[in-house]
Specification:
By secondary structure, the protein is α/β, with parallel strands linked by helices. Helices cover 43% and strands 19% of the residues. It contains 5 helices and 5 strands; from the N terminus they run βαβαβαβαβα. A 5-stranded parallel β-sheet has the order 2-1-3-4-5, with helices on both faces. Helix 1 links the parallel strand 1 and strand 2. It is globular and about 35 Å long.
């Protein structure tokens, strides 16, 4: 849940907690924000975070249908929040679905420099938008 950490909240939907380590390290380096993880999209939709979110990251290396459903749900409930989908090379349908739903599509594995850039952008955009601490 919410913490007293200053900065934006980043939400990750990922089946394996190890996927959350690079963005967590990036937040730690910036000494700003918090990371909230869910291991299943259903868990996220049934128990969404309270308050503002600066960035949603969906790591879905298997199920296009799950990604599409989650992106549509996010579009209805968090319309203006940045979204990133992380998938496999050659997942053209998944990439097309992500981009059509307004998400950035990245191929796994993501270099640490790219995670740092994404997290830095989320922190900066949250500050400009006046998003309160998580």
């Amino acid at each position: 849940g919410p913490t007293e950490v200053e900065g934006p909240r980043i939400v990750m939907l990922c089946a394996e907690l190890s996927y959350a380590e690079p963005p967590a390290r990036s937040l730690e380096k910036l000494d700003s924000g918090s990371l909230l993880t869910y291991d299943r999209p259903e868990q996220f939709r049934l128990n969404p975070p309270v308050g503002e979110v600066a960035l949603f990251v969906i790591v879905d290396r298997e199920s296009l249908e799950s990604t599409a459903h989650t992106l549509r749900w996010l579009g209805r409930h968090w319309h203006g929040t940045a979204r990133v989908v992380v998938g496999e090379t050659g997942s053209g349908r998944q990439e097309l679905t992500a981009r059509m739903d307004g998400a950035i599509y990245l191929v796994y594995p993501i270099p640490s420099e790219q995670w740092q850039s994404l997290v830095r952008l989320a922190v900066q955009s949250a500050k400009r938008a006046g998003i309160p601490a998580a």
